[in-house]
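Protein modeling request. Please complete all fields; requests missing the sequence field cannot be processed.
Requester role: graduate student
Desired output: 3D structure, token encoding
Chains: 1
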Amino acid sequence: MLLPGIFIVLVFAYGLLSRRLEGSLLTAPMLFTLAGMLVAALLTPTLAMESGGHLFLTVSELTLVLLLFSDACHTNLREFRRDGMLSARLLSVGMLLTILLGAVLAWLLFPSLGLWYAAIVATILAPTDAGLGQVIVSSDRVPEKVRETLNVEAGLNDGLSVPLLLFFIVMTGVHGVSSQGVLLQYVIEQLGYGALVGLVIGGGGGLLLDASRRRGWLSEDGEQMAVLSLPVMALLLAEAVAASMFIAAFVAGLALQWRYRPRSREGRFHGLLGEWLSYSVFFLFGLLVVGAMASLRWEYLLYGLLSLTLIRIVPVMMALLGSGLSARQRLFMGWFGPRGLASIVLGLVFLEQHGSGERVSLIGQLVVATVLLSIFLHGLTASPGIRWLNRDR
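Delivered output (393 residues):
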């Protein structure tokens, strides 16, 4: 109970100082990561690992399931038809180029990875995290077109990364998948069954919610509780049929908004629970990252910097050519693609499935280096970046 107690006290303290911290350079992910690192430094390494390690996977998987569902459920798909389909450009050309460039550079810097493992690390680090860039997507000083595009991109690219990651994992052969028949069976189980579970839970739940609301049976609080239960249902059913819980949650969110639109884009309870869980992931990340920092080499930090700059910015600049955005705006959007919660969870799931090994350990180190750099670099540059964006306006 030591770590939960410490975390709850930290959340309470953050709540007390939240208004004071809003205008500072310190973001919530930075503070909770630093807090976790400080706690780990005060505890013995063994105690820190035993206290936090067994919590990390469960909390992280649940957090990503809720995040994927919430993003899919609350993203307005009509945004794709606005502003020259900027979000669609980033989620198609931009994302594929990011994974391609990330895989090539990972392969060149670390030849021992091989092609498929290089693609895995690039895919894990492809999703962006709107939570790390909350200052950006919520600031009125950032043009609405830029804010909405970054928000929609972050809302959907984590869900789109999951099937690509599963495909690359299968191609490594670690699950004994060698023949085409077994490969097809695995893809159907993970992706096909996952999508089917999501359609049943999200679509069916949406129909029932709509019927209840039309009859006047549904209160606002009841709606939030019912909607929040859907991703957990998708998770449990996906586990029961050996499907991907992440695909199931993402498709459930899309299916729900197809059949039903919640009265509020972000329920109070739903939003607060998501924040709590995300803070806990960053706290546990900070707790466990201290042990990994001793083995971080300059090459890992170099790849992390490349992932945040060249690997992200070049594809974004190319994807947005002819969009009507200025070069300054495109560069701003290229830089503010922070790596956070989705990369942590996808990396953790990959490590859990693969156990140990030189290449697995290397991927873990690259993810740690990139996310750690992103938490602090994107947090510290958010406010100065907004001022830079508005310099010529």
